[in-house]
Amino acid sequence: MQKIIPCLWFDHQAEEAARFYTSLFKNSKMGRIAHFGEAGAQVSGRPKGSVMTVDFEIAGYKIAGLNGGPHFKFTPALSLFVWCETEAEIDRLWQELSAGGMTRMGLDKYPWAAKYGWTADRYGVEWQLILGERKQKIAPCLLFVKDLLGKGEEALRFYMSVFKNSKIETLERDEAGKFVLHSVVSLEGQNFVIMDGQGPHNFTFSGAFSLIVNCENQAEVDRYWTLLSAGGTPEQCGWLRDPYGVSWQIVPTIIGKLMTEAGPEKAERVMQALLKMTKVDIKTLEQA
After folding, report:
1. DSSP-assigned beta bridge partners for residue 3
2. Measured distance CA(222)–CA(188) in Å, rounded
3. Does the pLDDT at position 257 exceed 90?
């Protein structure tokens, strides 16, 4: 099971975006689509019965899409990093993902890559494409800027302390050893890219791109909640911001079963109970 799943927050285009992304990559598919009940609709401002969440996979990598309204916007602080095996592939993906979006760095040759480009797509999601091979084709990329500049390696080691099955795969620093130019860290067997971004940047992390931690039991929920929220900010419905401002959702895997297999009335009671929580309590959800 993929322990950590990126969650992309859209205004209302989660299903449309998911179908677009799954059309671009091999080994991709749509998954479960959930709709808003009364309680969720009232909180989000989205119409009852409209699409709430979409699960999908691109290149075998699981991602969740959420329609939450216009509250959060994507920023370059969190992007999806894609390793492309051939020039034909990177050219095709660049053409599709950059169309109607905003180019950050044009697709070209750079000192660190034979071919690389950075673009926001038509939905605002940020993508970095690079020519090269890696077993895990797609990985979240965290960029530390502004007041967080120089905190990349500290954050990397913090996340390794939280997730037990972790290791550094690559770590390249600047000549002074102050900034992480590029790193790949494995957390619970999943790759994440971490970099410090030098220069003036008018953005930081946003709840539009959060990371879901799938927890098998209450002990796991308690552990990840305690470690990731220390020095950060607890939020509603299992959400928190860690000490660096990165948004996480600490979610027991049983929620999906409770929301989809119990029937509409019971699912609505589960949602009502969840909306009253900060850290998720499994027993209370089961009682609901």
Report:
1. none
2. 18
3. no
Which pTM does this prediction carry?
0.95
Where along the chain do its domains lie? 4-72+209-287, 78-196
Alpha helical stretches, state H, 116-202: 152-162
Query: Helix, strand, or coil here: 54?
Result: strand
CA-only gyration radius of the chain, Å: 19
User: Which segments of the chain does DSSP mark as H helices, in order?
Assistant: 14-24, 38-44, 87-98, 152-162, 218-229, 254-260, 264-275, 282-287
Residue 182 CB contacts under 8 Å (≥ 6 apart), including other chains: 112, 170, 172, 193, 195
| Domain 78-196 listed as CATH 3.30.720.110 | yes
Q: Where are the beta strands (DSSP E) in 68-200?
A: 78-84, 102-110, 113-120, 126-131, 138-144, 166-173, 180-187, 190-196
The token duo for 142 is: 């965290």
Name the nearest CA neighbour of 244 among 254, 233, 235, 252: 233
Q: Looking at the domain 4-72+209-287, which fold is it?
A: 2,3-Dihydroxybiphenyl 1,2-Dioxygenase; domain 1 (3.10.180)
**pLDDT the model gives residue 260:** 67
Question: What's the pLDDT tens digit per position in 33-74?
Answer: 998 888 887 878 888 899 999 999 999 999 999 999 999 999
Pairing of strands 102-110, 51-58: unpaired
Please report, as a single letter, which amino acid is at residue 217: N
- Residue at token pair 């030098």: 198
Rounded Cα gap, residues 237 and 221, in angstroms: 12
Q: Sign of the CA dihedral 213, 142, 59, 54?
A: positive
Q: What is the pLDDT of residues 107-129, one digit of tens each?
A: 999 999 999 999 999 999 999 99
